[in-house]
Amino acid sequence: MNYQEFLSSKTERPSHSPLSRTSGFGESLFPFQRDIVEWAARLGRAAIFGDCGIGKTLIQLEWASADDGITLIAAPLAVSDQTIAEGERFGIEVKRARDIDDVHESCGIWITNYERLGKFGALGDTFSSIVLDESSILKSFAGKTRNAIIAQSLGVPHRL
């Protein structure tokens, strides 16, 4: 084995698992937003680092609605109400969950704030997808919150 082959053998390749739906998203999306949602849905795991004002909330809601399972959106406390209202505005139901006992359906979109994530246990046991809204919470490489969220989300197949 040469050195390049050795390095290649150490490279971790992400698995791609598309969401249940990868096209046919809402008419409310601008073409560039639809392209982003379709791209992220085909990958199943993606990061959208969009600028202010491009409609990231609608993009994440459309992405979450493409999963046939249960999606959890984790967001800062003040953002939860805005996300629920944005969902209503575009006909996407988002339900609030304070802990795992609130999640009583086998599909749908649920939202909680970051501070309550510890009340949900291993997220992969219940959720088939997770959205981290305002994901700047992950910036601190050695942060306790960042590491806890990553560990808690390991079993979730679809992540945004």
If you had to describe this structure to a student in words, what would you say it looks like?
The chain has helices at residues 3-10, 31-43, 56-65, 77-89, 144-153; strands at residues 70-75, 94-96, 108-113, 129-132, 158-159. The protein is globular and about 55 Å long. The termini are far apart. Strand 4 (129-132), helix 5 and strand 5 (158-159) form a beta-alpha-beta unit. The mean pLDDT is 92. Helix 2 (31-43) crosses helix 3 (56-65). The protein has a five-stranded parallel sheet, with helices on one face. It contains five helices and five strands; from the N terminus they run H-H-H-E-H-E-E-E-H-E. Helices cover 34% and strands 13% of the residues. With 160 residues, the protein is of the alpha/beta class.
Describe the secondary structure blueprint for this structure:
Elements lengths: L2 H8 L20 H13 L12 H10 L4 E6 L1 H13 L4 E3 L11 E6 L15 E4 L11 H10 L4 E2 L1
Parallel strand pairs: 1-3, 1-4, 2-3, 4-5
Features:
160 residues; alpha/beta; 5-stranded parallel sheet; 34% helix
Indicate the mean pLDDT. 92
Structural class comes to alpha/beta
Largest sheet: 5 strands, parallel
Q: Nearest-angstrom radius of gyration? A: 16 Å
Inertia-based shape: globular
Name the strands of the widest sheet in spatial order: 2-3-1-4-5
Element string (H = helix, E = strand): HHHEHEEEHE
Number of helices: 5
Number of strands: 5
First and last CA, distance: 37 Å
Low-confidence stretches: none
Helix percent reads 25-40%
Give a quick precis of the structure.
The chain has 160 residues and is α/β, with parallel strands linked by helices. It is built from 5 helices and 5 strands.
